[in-house]
Amino acid sequence: MIKRLELTNFRNYISLSLDLPPGLIILQGDNAQGKTNFLEAIYLLATTRSPFSKTDQEFVNWLAQDSPLPFAKIAGVIEGQDGSTRIELVIAGEPSPSGVRYRKKAFINGVPKRLIDILGRLCCVLFSPSDIEIVSGPPEGRRRFLDIALCQVDSKYCQALALYNKVVERRNHLLKRAQEEGFNEEEFLFWDESLVKYGSIVTKTRWEALGTMAPEVRKTHMALTEAEESLQVLYICSALGEVISDPGLANPPSLEEIEKAMAQRLAQARNKDLDQGVTTIGPHRDDVRFLLNGRDISAYGSRGQQRSAAFSLRLAEMTFIEKASGESPLLLLDEVLSELDQKRRERLTEIVSQAPQAIITTLEWGGFRKEFLAKAHLFTVTQGNVRAVSLSSIPTAA
Ligand SMILES: Nc1ncnc2c1ncn2[C@@H]1O[C@H](COP(=O)(O)OP(=O)(O)OP(=O)(O)O)[C@@H](O)[C@H]1O
Ligand SMILES: [Mg+2]
Q1: pTM to 2 decimal places
Q2: Which of ligand 1's atoms lies nearest the C-alpha of 381?
Q3: Res 52: pLDDT
């Protein structure tokens, strides 16, 4: 859990220092006051990535961007299995020939560390209205979903993924050069081997994670729809060129098997890769598909059905992180309660009430029952300032 949050020049928070209690925290504020930014800051501290595709520059307060050495800082005191740790993530701008270049830097207890080292210190799951895009949007969002969940609990995965991405970039560069200067087999040997080596780790780990999540997704969805809808997860595994559903998901092949299959497919795709100037085989081309009663939900599902599937997926992510890390993740809910129907709302309220720590944002206090508010620690946010309020001082409906 997070005990304290400090923000400097982070979006509309010029300076914030806030102690956070365990249990339920509700953050109320009008539009554009900083509710989402608050959750985003915590999410960044936990995962080093934004829930949305963003440039690092966006995080730095507009006014601060004009200073000679612009920066934003997110600092948190995290209470974990091995005591209290202070984690800092600094987004710093440095002058470069093409303007200011922003980079993230990490510190643990004041000591500079690699970004990867702060992962897993604070595991969190964010429920946000844009979650629906995981289900309905392009494959990139689904890979991102998997990567962020996995990187929080598996540092080997995170390392393999970082190396894999570099290899793909390098290999694509080589392919483009080969288009102009001709193909040289030897140049590719090392990169193909590396691609297979790291790509197989990424593939196997994703496969295993989906194997854990798929039954959870199905179970939650069944419970929420009273068994009217069955939601099935498919892994479109690029390395093997296969579509894997259960029970295959529950039985991933060995690393050697994946390596062999991937090397073979990579060799077969060489001419195509050379033609297109990009690597067409590997987990950067993976996808996940959801079938609702046998049909692809991104093509045939209603908005409500897609939203429910995304919701089931988040709950599955929660269980996955719990199993993999041995700790319940911090739950961040960005105004999601108001957009869920009664049943999902009740389910989520129940889960949130049991979480060691959960932060919920809301526009209106009136959306919650009084008993729920009475259990929670209440805060309001106004123009990047957060203060605690008492139940007696707020207007409530129920
Ligand atoms: N880099 C930045 N510098 C200064 N302000 C920023 C920066 N990035 C975003 N903002 C501003 O922060 C404000 C708060 O945004 P945020 O998304 O947190 O609001 P919110 O409270 O979640 O509102 P809503 O209820 O509409 O979702 C917005 O007005 C936005 O323009
Ligand atoms: Mg918001």
Answers
A1: 0.94
A2: 21
A3: 75
